[in-house]
Structure prediction request, 505 residues.
Amino acid sequence: MSPEPIDAATIAADVQSGRRTARAVAEASLARIATTEPAIHAFLGVTADRALAAADAIDDRRANGEPLGPLAGVPIAWKDNLVCAGEIATAGSRLLEPFRAPYSATVLERLEAAGAVLIGRTNLDEFGMGSTTENSAFGPTRNPVDPTLVPGGSSGGSAAAVAALDCPLAIGTDTGGSVRQPAAFCGVTGIKPTYGRVSRYGLIAYASSLDCVGAIARNAADLRLWLRAVEGPDPADATSLRRGEAKPETADVPRDDLTGLRVGLPWQLNGPGIDEEVSAAVRTAATELERLGATVEECSLAAVAHAVPTYYLVATAEASSNLARYDGVRYGQRRDGRRLEAMMAATRSHGFGHEVQLRVLLGTFALRAGYHEELYGRATRIRDLLRREFETAFASYDVLLSPTSPVPPFPLGSRLDDPLAMYLCDALTVPANLAGIPALSLPCGSTATGRPIGLQCMAAHGNDDALLRVGELFQRQTDHHRRTADLAGDVDGAVDGNPPEAPTA
Prediction:
């Protein structure tokens, strides 16, 4: 029997008022993780001592009459490609063993300053490269809605932890949909903020011009609470937005209805190639927005037809550069070799999984002399074209809608031998990363067999707050997020067949 879902805002209010102690909340979260982990494998490490010490400190501050932060006592998990001082960091890879972080990512520092209780490190596709969390060196994560299905990726552990009611909030990262797609597959809510709105300092990089730190929760209201706690400039991250670059909340942001909201449905993101049940659910969601006062009409984004190849050229080229540091010399594991080149080759061949090796090779090829301009250069020009098309679209529309994923969650192992089919799972999410705009995934229904379906909402650069307001109102007027959370939370710690057999990091 699953516990009652409690959102982050309620927990914080209860801890601040004394209705709950932070220690009791942390103990309940840890107990829930112990129950669900044999079935789900959402975590690579649970930081129980750290969590309980933080919870006790919060309770002491309240007993002494000291003010508490906006996330007081809220248990939060973090994706294991963000470093946390004193804790192991693996990025889902064997190559980093046994690295222990000497400092914390800015986003984790800001969460702890806001009173959050860091509860554990979540599983991910190695270095964030994947769409199912099956590429983790430590075994796959399973979907709490149905443990025979993938949870999405690469932040599958974070989405599964929230869906299984282990914690109300989890941090993920989104390079091409890695927060939104697992949120859709697990029936929860996820946001990729505007590029630069949340500091990337302390993130183990995959593709630096695309990587964003995002979050997953059961509702958009909790994501707003998270964003307020972590956003803002960071001197340690030169790409973080300066004050004034992100648009603040304004009076015309809808609060009670969506009257005046202009919604566009780009036909290229809502047409051929989309599963019929997914398409029907998104159309129904668009009708629900119309009922709330929005104006919905079809529009066009021609350049998104080139988004997937453009993304995989840009992302793999940047990955080739970023992952060059893992050479067996400075940190991580090392394999012996008779010469320096042999040692580096052995280290990387043994330490990197197959998907990482494939993407590094693709990126290295794209950057080779004689191919750089033809491949990487052309991809950057198409990216600029896509960004301009979005700017033009947002001159006419406040929000653009599409499915989050063209298909509902599929069985574990069913696409591992078909990389192209796997890459096309990102077809609807990568455009937002290429353009640097905020995007939100909301549950909007389920298939006849109960598999969750996600609705993707995108807004103009810096309009994260308006986007979240739309999500909050949609969720106040519908119950999709509550129904899928009930399904996902009913995990009893056992699955048919064999649970993932993999050591924790």
Summary: The radius of gyration is 21 Å. Confidence is low (pLDDT under 50) at residues 250-254, 493-504.
